[in-house]
Amino acid sequence: MLELRNVTAGYGAFTALWDVSLDVAAGEAVAVVGPNGAGKTTLLRVISGMIAPRAGALTFEGASLTGRPAYEVVAHGIAHVPEGRRIFPMLTVADNLKMGAYLKVARRAYAESLERVFALFPVLSERRRQRAGSLSGGEQQMLAVGRALMSRPRLVLLDEPSMGLAPVMVLRLFDLIRRVREEGYTILIVEQNVRQVLKLVDRAYLLEAGHLKMEGRAEALAEQDFVRKAYVGL
Amino acid sequence: MIDPIFLAEAAVNGLLLGGVLALLALGLNLIFGVIDIVWIAYVDLVMICMYAVYFLVQVYGWPIWIGSLASVGLGALLGIAVHVLIISPILGSAPVNQLLATGGLLFFLQSFATFLWTTDHRSVRLTLPTLEYGGMFLSFARLVAFAVALLVMLGLFLFLRHTYIGTAIRAVSQDREAMALMGANPRTVYVVTSAVGGALAGVAAALLIIQYSVHPFFGAAFGPLTFMICVLGGLGNMIGAFVAAFIMSEIISIGGVVWSTEMGYVIAFVIFIIMIFVRPGGLFARRA
Ligand SMILES: Nc1ncnc2c1ncn2[C@@H]1O[C@H](COP(=O)(O)OP(=O)(O)OP(=O)(O)O)[C@@H](O)[C@H]1O
Ligand SMILES: [Mg+2]
Known about the structure:
The complex is a heterodimer. Chain A is α/β, with parallel strands linked by helices. Chain A is built from eleven helices and ten strands.
């Protein structure tokens, strides 16, 4: 479904990703883990078109997305839940979700999408008239995920959804992401919560200082060196 | 002692003036909130539109309401032109360059108007009545301008509240990148915002030309005032600009009756400077 081939990317003269190749098959859940500053966020930003790769190729469902801007990538079916949630704090919950359905095709399916999102996250329905900035951290993360689903994506990119949440909330959130997965979305998730995320995904990649170091099935990796390595980096 | 009737008249006139000022401030603030650039030349675009209405109505004999609609259209086109030709190429550059560019546009428009139309003051002569109410004399033109300004602002409010693109405009002013992730091309949002801001300038022009005469330096009086209102209300804060417009217009109007028009402006400026020190984020700044 998604293929990255030898992608190199960075900021100005600085290179944050070196020659990264990665695949996600339809229906899969894949994690990218690694220490702070490894380039995980940069990787997702390249996929969603927030930054253009310096070299390499990006293909999604057979179409080349290399260097396409973010507003085009989302129209191809990739939704990005960015690091730090990035909800619109002054808009209501309902308006945030409406913006998630900004694409023409998504607008037509707005009512149906909204129903699905409210079924997944009932709290958003209760809070729909509230300013998004007044939600708790966990609720804001649910809103960010719900907003992404409103665009009717096939692949969802999640960047550290558990960041800044209390431990109980983290567990609930992972439960909810599991439910999102069961709805049929393909997921590429970046997490520092390695133990939790490996229970959720099929496969995982380890990213270190901009290089992909390891790749493997989640169960096999869970108890390995790999996990410790990712933790040591913290 | 001043006759209370004069004070009451000044207060009403201040309220009426506030409507048009609020319109100007909302236009400027809308653009700033989304694109993060203050269009220093905003009121000079109004000036160009005022000339357009003057020529269409006074010289070519068009009905005022068609002239006004033309002004709105011209304003929207000018807004788009300013964005595409001047703002867009310098979006990523230093704020001082952006100030220089829109400041340069201001001088260009003033010189351009002087060159084409000389410094003569021109006005549209409409035979609109003066109304008397309880000893107060009120200009019908001002009442109309006020009512139209309020209606247009209501329209703007509904547009920003209820349409996809209007909500996207508000969203972009909060998080530009996130809105691109939703599928909105930032360029499109900027152009629409500039068109709406320009159209508001066109509306304001039509409402001002029935009250004031136009000359190339019209922007010199209303430009700084509009900017002050935006800062006072908190740059980018629409509600704040709306309220601040009425505060400033009342100060100028009542100050003008109690002392003199110049004094009214001086007081408004002094209050503005004090406010900048007391509440740098504007009247309604949220605590961080
Ligand atoms: N906008 C930027 N400009 C310059 N350098 C940046 C920028 N964003 C990130 N970097 C650098 O790129 C490298 C990778 O950053 P990135 O945010 O992708 O890491 P990460 O793995 O997501 O880290 P974290 O776990 O802290 O979120 C870091 O060294 C960071 O300092
Ligand atoms: Mg990150």
